Amino acid sequence: MSHAPSTKLSPAPAPLYERDLYAWSQEQAALLRAGRLGEIDAENIAEEILDVGKTEYRVLESALRVLLWHMLKWDHQPEKRSRSWESTILEQRGRVARQLRENPSLKPRLLEAVQAGYEDGRLRASGETEIDLDRFPEACPYDWDTIMNQEFRR
């Protein structure tokens, strides 16, 4: 008795976008540069472009988180002030300024970024200093000028 050959179907391979994002991005860039717009993966390109914008916002928020965290430690533990804290404050101010200079359209979201950065920085400051969270103001106590310009010298 002869058996029909097995016709197991292998699942179709996942699209390149899902298998190798780097290779996909190189392919899409080449298609765009060649003007082969009918061949591009427009939906995923749009998603990736939106993700770039989200990443730029997160970089700003992250720098503000670290900056505000160290400002809180500075204010609440004057006996532990160090050059390391000064250095971190200056470095993060530079990152904030650079991010805003390179992405000026983030400026309308600055208040949102400060609030989010402060919430996270407040938690980190409380955890690291072992000072009760209630001792840190719920809302950011610093205005923009203070955040970016206050001198921090031991």
Question: How does this model look, in words?
Answer:
This protein has 154 residues and is mainly alpha-helical. It has a domain at 55-149. Helices cover 64% and strands 0% of the residues. It is built from six helices and no strands. It has helices spanning 16-19, 21-33, 42-76, 83-102, 110-129, 144-149. Helix 3 packs antiparallel against helix 4 (83-102) and helix 3 (42-76) crosses helix 5 (110-129).
Sum up the structure in keywords.
64% helix; 154 residues
Provide a short characterization of the protein structure.
By secondary structure, the chain is mainly alpha-helical. The protein contains 6 helices and no strands. It has helices at 16-19, 21-33, 42-76, 83-102, 110-129, 144-149.
What is the chain-wise order of helices and strands?
HHHHHH
Relative strand content: under 5%
Euclidean distance between termini CA atoms: 92 Å
**Share in helix:** 55-70%
Low-confidence stretches: none
Rg over alpha carbons: 25 Å
Per the principal axes of the C-alpha atoms, what is the gross shape? elongated
Tally of separate helices? 6
Annotate the secondary structure layout:
Blueprint: H1 16-19, H2 21-33, H3 42-76, H4 83-102, H5 110-129, H6 144-149
Helix pairs in contact: 3-4, 3-5
